[in-house]
Amino acid sequence: QVQLVESGGGLVQAGGSLRLSCAASGLTFSNYVMGWFRQAPGKEREFVAGIYWGGGSTFYADSVKGRFTISRDNAKNTVNLQMSSLKPEDTAVYYCAAQRRGGARYDYWGQGTQVTVSS
Predict the structure, then answer these.
(1) Helix (H, G, I), strand (E, B) or coil at 89
(2) Contact status, residue 23 vs residue 78, Cβ threshold 8 Å
(3) Helix (H, G, I), strand (E, B), or coil: what is residue 32?
(4) How far is the CA of 4 from the CAs of 12, 44, 85, in angstroms?
(5) Could you read off the pLDDT of 79-96 as tens digits, one per residue?
(6) Cβ–Cβ contacts within 10 Å for residue 68, how many?
């Protein structure tokens, strides 16, 4: 059974930083593209950042480029999202997701962790 468990969310002031982590189990982690998504109240879920299997290639939404950094540790089956210079508009539930190599969609999702940025 595949499980993705996010942690690290919380309340932070604008301009601050948070580090989210996602622990994966039940899958061959190195065979998956890992991504972070977020969903703010009343809005659709949106892509935030992604990282390929070996960790050498990353991609970001324009709204977070230069502020967020995604990384992974295939030995520990974890993917992280370092968030800096946080803005109130970054407030959302953040989800970790896994996409099988060669797949066209994300196959597995975590339960999410709340990030709230106060102004």
Answers:
(1) helix
(2) yes
(3) strand
(4) 24, 21, 26
(5) 999 999 999 999 999 999
(6) 22
Nearest Cα to Cα of residue 82 among 18, 1, 14:
18
Contact 34, 98 (CB under 8 A): yes
* Inter-residue contact 119 to 12 (CB < 8 Å): no
Let me know: does 77 contact 32? Beta carbons within 8 Å: no
The per-residue pLDDT for range 22-75, each reduced to its tens digit, is 999 999 999 999 999 999 999 999 999 999 988 789 999 999 999 999 999 999
Cβ proximity of 24 and 83 under 8 Å: no
DSSP state of 112: -
H or E stretch including 3? strand 3-7
Six-digit token pair at 107? 């196959």
